Amino acid sequence: MSANQSKKTEALYSFTDKDVAGLHVHISSGNGKIGHIWNVSTVPGDALNTPTVNRDGKQVRITDVAGTCGGVCKDCHNFCYAFDSIRQHHNACAPSWSENTLIYRKDVERFMKEIDDAITTKNSKPRGKKVEEFRINVSGELESYRSLLLWIELAKKHPETRFGIYTKRFSWVVDYLKANAKFPTNFFINASEWNHNIDSLKPMIEGKTNIFAYCDSLAEAQEYLDKGYRMCRAIDYRGCHTGIKCDECGYCYGRYGIIDVFVLDHSSAGRVRLAKEAKELKAEGKLESVVKRLEDAQAIEAKEAK
């Protein structure tokens, strides 16, 4: 193996040689951000854009399993909260996300069956909290149109559970709508809008999916409010968590119908940019009015959610 090849394959954690037959899907019952919403994650990024950490002055890949975003993360991986998560918590995230990715790629039927069995078992118990909501891919993406169909079939099998996914695979969403007219009533697509990436297909999905916009700046936030978008209550104008969890809100899981929502960039880099912008607005005497408008928008959402 050449020095260049060795450098390319170097990673903190190595999983690619693991026997998939001996692995099982890691399903989470929630986290500090989304609350008690069951979910599953795969590795974010792709073969070219991989999560890394600094080791001895150089960037080292966290896992040797390529991410599932497959090109749609070409521009956004530097602003990705999932990259932040695996960097900060790689001891926990790297093994579970990597093993999920391997099973997903090599034995997708078993991947789905294990999730199906887990939901069935939990929801069949006479006591205890049921799986009311399931988030597909807290990190990672759909890797094939077939995987979208498999998730939809799982949702049909479990009408008692609401399934939600954030995705940039807009063309597959359009393909499904052309063939089926609409999604199951318990399956909620949140089309991830960012920097006009959805403009050409938006007329074909608007009104049939949620639109969830990732917003880079306070100026852009004003534009989304002008367009009638709701503001996600979980993140404030600084890109910091407000303490509101997804299970307390539920917009993205269909409780309030088909909606357009935006959230401010809450990656590490995003918070730095928002702080710089806020400082500039404060110097111009404009920050107070901007913050008030955003806080008022979130207060309206809080009132409607009660």
Summarize this entry quickly.
The protein has 306 residues and is an alpha/beta fold. Helices cover 41% and strands 15% of the residues. The chain has helices at residues 3-9, 81-88, 90-106, 108-124, 145-157, 170-180, 202-205, 218-226, 246-249, 268-283, 287-305, and strands at 11-13, 38-40, 52-55, 58-63, 133-136, 162-167, 187-193, 210-215, 230-231, 260-264.
Task: Kindly describe this structure.
- By secondary structure, the chain is an alpha/beta fold.
- The protein is 41% helix and 15% strand.
- The protein contains 11 helices and 10 strands.
- It has helices spanning 3-9, 81-88, 90-106, 108-124, 145-157, 170-180, 202-205, 218-226, 246-249, 268-283, 287-305, and strands spanning 11-13, 38-40, 52-55, 58-63, 133-136, 162-167, 187-193, 210-215, 230-231, 260-264.
- The strands form 2 sheets. A 7-stranded parallel β-sheet has the order 2-5-6-7-8-10-9.
- Helix 2 (81-88) packs across helix 3 and helix 3 (90-106) packs across helix 4 (108-124).
- The longest helix has 19 residues, at 287-305.
